[in-house]
Amino acid sequence: MSTNPTISVGQFKIEIVRKDIKNMHLAVYPPYGRIRLAAPYKTDGDVVRLFAVSKLGWIKKNIKNFKEQPRETPREYVPGETHYYRGKRYLLRVLVADGPQLVKVGGTRYIVIKVRPSSTLESRAQLLKEWYRAQLKKELPALIEKWERVIGVKCNSWGVKQMKTKWGSCTNSSKRIWLNLELAKKPSICLEFIVCHELIHLLERNHNERFVSMMNKHMPKWRQYREVLNRLPVAHNEWEY
To answer: By CB atoms within 10 Å of each CB, which of 50, 60, 70, 86 scores lowest?
Structure first.
């Protein structure tokens, strides 16, 4: 839980984060509309509040959009259940048999999992999770290499992990980026958007004008891709970006 101070504006609580930046930046995060305002260290508190008040209409619009975003119900890993891969909807086929367990795409409609008779909900979830991880790890090297060339940066390492609060993250000191495992379920262009986003963070840590300028330069349609990502169904265990 965040320990940053908050202010109340209307019916909303806004988290205030002080940073070494020139301008204030307001963000509303899915899925439920957590609001964060980043402000320069020296900006007066009254100025911060007035800025937040001026953005009330924008805040309400974004929170409404997040609340209307479709949600997945908790997964049970049973035949006929809906699962997503690279932005496409698949139905689950479950084969129960002794021997090695596996996951594969069956044609254009099905994701097939082969499980042992003793399999549990948790073991089926883990099997599919590791399959998603393997698919991302196959796709990411070429994407990262592509965007390193485009942007003119080099990350020392990258990884895939389940994240509860972000689609991706970047550690500037080690030049390492992380990608959310759930991106395996999203269209490939959404994955590219996050890769580009995190690699640009190697040049600019903050979401300031310089960062936005670089995003505009290297991926002019990035806002469109972000919108696609935010409109897609989110998992029962939700996160934000």
So the answer is: 70
Residue 240 placed within a domain = no
Distance of CA 41 to the CA centre of its chain: 28
- What are the distances in angstroms from CA 206 to CA 25, 68, 203, 232? 10, 29, 9, 26
Inter-residue contact 72 to 81 (CB < 8 Å): no
110, 93 contact by CB (below 8 A): yes
pLDDT above 80 (res 235): no
DSSP strands (E only) in the chain: 6-9, 12-19, 25-29, 34-40, 82-85, 88-96, 102-106, 110-115, 157-161, 168-171, 176-180
Q: Residue type for 47, please? A: V
Total domains in the fold of the chain: 2
CB atoms within 10 A of CB 105: 15
Same domain, 42 and 100: no
| 102's tokens | 């596996």
Band (67; pLDDT cuts 50, 70, 90): low
Segments forming the whole domain that contains residue 50 = 6-67
pLDDT for the residue numbered 241? 37
Confidence of residue 210 (pLDDT cuts 50, 70, 90): very high
Q: What span, in angstroms and rounded, lies between the C-alpha atoms of 95 and 145?
A: 37
- Tokens of residue 172, six digits: 């500037």
pTM of the prediction?
0.72
| DSSP label of 142 | H
Chain-centroid distance of CA 16 in Å reads 22
- Between CA 156 and CA 61 the distance in angstroms is 39
Please give the pLDDT value at position 232: 65
Give the mean model confidence (pLDDT) for residues 95-115: 95
